[in-house]
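Operator note (shift B, R.M.): manual run for L-rhamnose isomerase requested after the automated queue skipped it. Running by hand, logging everything below so the morning shift can see what happened. Input copied straight from the record, untouched. If output looks odd, do not overwrite the archive copy; leave it for review.
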Amino acid sequence: MPDPSAVKAALQAQEIETPSWGYANSGTRFKVFAQAGVPRDPFEKLADAAQVHAATGVAPLVSLHIPWDRVDDYGALAAHAANLGVRIGMINSNTFQDDDFKLGSVAHPDAAVRRKAVAHLMECVDIMDATGSDSLKLWFADGTNYPGQDDIVARQDRLFEALSEVYARLGEHQRMVLEYKLFEPAFYSTDVPDWGTSYAHCLKLGPKAKVVVDTGHHAPGTNIEFIVAFLLREGKLGAFDFNSRFYADDDLMVGAADPFQLFRILHEVAKNGGFDKAHGVAFMLDQCHNIEAKIPAMIRSVMNVQEATAKVLLVDLPALREAQAAGDVLGAHAVLMDAYDTDVRPLLADLREEMGLDRDPLAAYRASGYAEKIVADRVGGTQAGWGA
Ligand code: AOS
Ligand code: ZN
Ligand code: ZN
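Run finished. Output pasted below as returned.
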């Protein structure tokens, strides 16, 4: 069995990134249910993220989204983060909320619109310079709704041209990560619909371009852990957007719908060196909390990732390899299931205590009085929302 102190050390070193927009109001196209105390600006979003880190000890990074988190002084925003004990993580671009992007952004048929999209991506790299962020996160809503609407290959050419331009602008220690999504908002063809398309572009671009796996962006039944294992083998896994899906891109809390899938994915990460800092894989939560309290939902999500990580670190790899080599199908499967069936909550509570934290992060957050304080303090102004 793995050495418990090594397991604890790996868990303590884990860094989970939370999204600034997960602290803001969000909803469906039917209704946004506003919550009291929700942040009114990016500074307050960082303050909420810092609470998640304070309670868990493993969530020190916060993804920003431009323009939702646009401020005058990004240096001041990064300094604010540092004062709160967190750091700016990936800079997420937005080429889907401008009227000009109706027919796409970087793959749009009109060169003027493509220039506007590239200018936005360049602005995001400027913000990386100003905040110290090392990753530009790209997700494109580009695609078509009707057969014949546009030329599929021409759109790939335009996309690659734009990506190349932005790639050339990246600094020595900066990189871009390209997310794929099966469908939505385009329904007939999506320009980056799957890992293969993202991988092909990243391979051509060079070593600073890697693939993002958003767990909610696949067809039902897709073996996501295979994709993860393959990308790690090729050195092309850049980041995760963790969330849960029951149907499509539900963006529910990670580990809620299918904790076993999360375990299987993280098992491939652990087995293939993906937790080593050298691989540079970002473990981000891309979630929206529409009906649940936002900060506790994020704490719970971080704990879900931590629990799954603890379980995969407990997999007896020598025993697994021995069973695999012997062709012992049930024996190999049993090694994995033994780890999955382990209750790791006591181990994690002990670890937290050793880290000077409360054994129960959710109880610690409740006891802190922060939830009541933000409801009392954040009066006036406009609450931030997904898209504002
Ligand atoms: C969209 O479906 C993608 O998951 C994006 O990663 C993300 O949710 C959006 O860009 C908000 O930043
Ligand atoms: Zn995503
Ligand atoms: Zn998504």
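Quick read of the result: The chain has a mean pLDDT of 97. The first strand starts at residue 16 and ends at 19.
Leaving this for review. - R.M.
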